[in-house]
Amino acid sequence: MSYQLNEKLRDLTPYDPIEGSxxxxxxxxxxxxxxxxxxxxxxxxxxxxxxxxxxxxPYARVVCQKFAALYGLNPELVTAxxxxxxxxxxxxxxxxxxxxxxxxxxxxxxxxxxxAEIYEAIPTTYSKEQxxxxxxxxxxxxxxxxxxxxxxxxxxxxxxxxxxxxxxxTGTDALVILDEAYMDFxxxxxxxxxxxxxxxxxxxxxxxxxxxAAIRLxxxxxxxxxxxxxRAVKSPYNVNSLTQSVGAALLSDVERxxxxxxxxxxxxxxxFASIKPLEASPVIQSVPETVTNFxxxxxxxxxxxxxxxxxxxxxxxxxPAFLRxxxxxxxxxxxxxxxxxxxxxxxxxx
Length: 350
Ligand SMILES: *Cc1c(COP(=O)(O)O)cnc(C)c1O
Fold this sequence. Notes:
alpha/beta, Aspartate Aminotransferase, domain 1, Aspartate Aminotransferase, domain 2, three-stranded antiparallel beta sheet, 12 helices, 12 strands, 41% helix, globular, binds pyridoxal-5'-phosphate
């Protein structure tokens, strides 16, 4: 006898964001500042307040209140997750039944499709290029029970306006799962609309603009009925006490958070300004405007440039038709720009 993995697991491989260690990491859209440098005392006090022998608060009430205060929301509509990744998993597991269709868009964050498939829903993919009218038509045509997408978009760096997304929310009975992981860098959030529509879920993460990827903390903001369902379907102690306590302390620091976001946007603008002129090179197709903390460089040479950057100790994210570069510290940006210029000069000379 021998045990056989089922079909959906057989060909899966563990997630590996990057192999090897690199001195400059601009590949994962994290904030470049390390909070411990500024806030070591606040963090250690918060960690010390935790009763390690006790289970966490299953509703993570304090950290949900701090998050709600930061964004001007009703805390009753906020549920915390072990990263927004876990919330994506919980929501797709709970709100879809086996065989249900779910609409994903392209390009987009790969985890949506991944979880949908694990839960035996059927993801169908539609291009973002046709806009929200097209998405509505695709929902109707496929009979999908839900649509999930990031806005602004990871990996393209572009976004749909608030009005466009509202058209979608009001034009369908399907569940709209809107991932606003990067909305802190733009001003088209629908957070103030949650509760007005019975089919709108918004996901937020502390991993990007807020600089806390390590503690794994994300939030789902949903109407009451959906909030209750998510709380019922999640595992009871999904967010550990250290994360709740440290997260609550860090989220209280509203002024500092806004300062840091401004600094990230400034870094993005500086990086964009140095790379944009390289559109003149025959090696580069385009460097479009972005509303996130990363820039996107369309080039046929993505694979070669990616490899050459790794050799110089710089990690960026490679896609088939483009590279995605997270804005870093001024020094990291400068090192990237210098290396990138050298590499494309060499490619031009071939
Ligand atoms: C990074 C990212 C996430 C993951 O957030 P975590 O809270 O770290 O799990 C979710 N959605 C998008 C679009 C992202 O880019």
